[in-house]
# Entry
Amino acid sequence: MAPVTEPADLNGLTVCSATGSTSALTFRTLIAPQAQVRTYDTYTQCMTALSSGEVDAVTTDDALPAGYATRGGPEGRFELAGFRLTEERYGIGLPKGSALRAKAQSALARMVTDGSWHKAVEKNLPLLRTDPPPFTD
# Structure
């Protein structure tokens, strides 16, 4: 298989994602419409299919493949393609009016300010290159 250096390189390949994911839909419609998208119930199943050669690539949010690529064992054989397909942020969902909102924002702000957020990302997901979370309403 030729190296994948840009999204168009995935056309003609078999790419895995979780059933019903936004990643699978975006991939099919915007990224590489000529790729064959295979879906499984979980990303663990996608990684197993990648490991066995059933699929050529896996598409999902940044954190999952970054985690698989840095783990020991067979998952350590994987690498990131090095490009972003979309810009999507993670969030913390709470019920409207939750008293936990202020505590969660305070904890995140403290982690960003004291550097512990960056240290946690570097320790657990060293291949993930991302900015600290924004604080929005």
